[in-house]
UniProtKB/TrEMBL annotation:
PROSITE patterns: 2FE2S_FER_1, 2FE2S_FER_2. This is (2Fe-2S)-binding protein. Pfam families: Fer2, Fer2_2. Gene3D superfamilies: 3.10.20.30, [2Fe-2S]-binding domain (1.10.150.120). It comes from Curvibacter microcysteis. The keyword Transmembrane does not apply.
């Protein structure tokens, strides 16, 4: 039995310590906002935050999260996270999602990136592209993703 701090709450997870965080979230806790994509940390669909940093939950074992804070898409877009709210609103405004499968990972990466910027700093296109490079969108909405991240940064400035 492992205790994981997820979205500010301690949750008991009855799983082997080598179980990836993704499966603890989805299968054990029923939190399906975080998606399975490739299982090899290549696509970004499974992105969550570990102590504020974007990580790939499909390859990170729950043992690595002991004593750490996991944040999922449910918390980032649930109304308590100012940056997450700005990113989510920009996603809707720019009509980013097509199939939507990668979007929770995209939003998690964008939110983590924008939280690293100094207050009032607007990222360049190159900075946005670099921050989002590990997230794959099969629908190819990269221009809209870039515009949404820039718009969210402008909103937060």
């Amino acid at each position: 039995m492992s205790t994981l701090n997820i979205n500010g709450q301690d949750r008991q997870v009855d799983a082997d310590p080598s179980t990836p965080i993704l499966w603890a979230l989805r299968d054990t806790l029923g939190m399906t906002g975080t998606k399975f994509g490739c299982g090899a940390a290549l696509c970004g669909a499974c992105t969550v935050h570990l102590n504020g940093q974007a990580i790939r939950s499909c390859v990170t074992p729950i043992s690595a999260a002991a004593g750490q804070k996991i944040t999922t898409i449910e918390a980032v877009t649930g109304g308590q996270d100012k940056v997450g709210q700005a990113v989510h609103a920009a996603w809707v405004k720019h009509d980013v999602a097509q199939c939507g499968y990668c979007q929770s990972g995209q939003i998690m990466s964008a939110t983590a990136f924008l939280k690293t910027l100094p207050r009032g700093k607007k990222p360049t296109e190159a900075q946005i592209d670099a921050a989002m490079a590990g997230n794959v969108c099969r629908c190819g909405t990269y221009a809209r993703i870039r515009a949404a991240v820039a718009d969210a940064a402008q909103t937060l400035a």
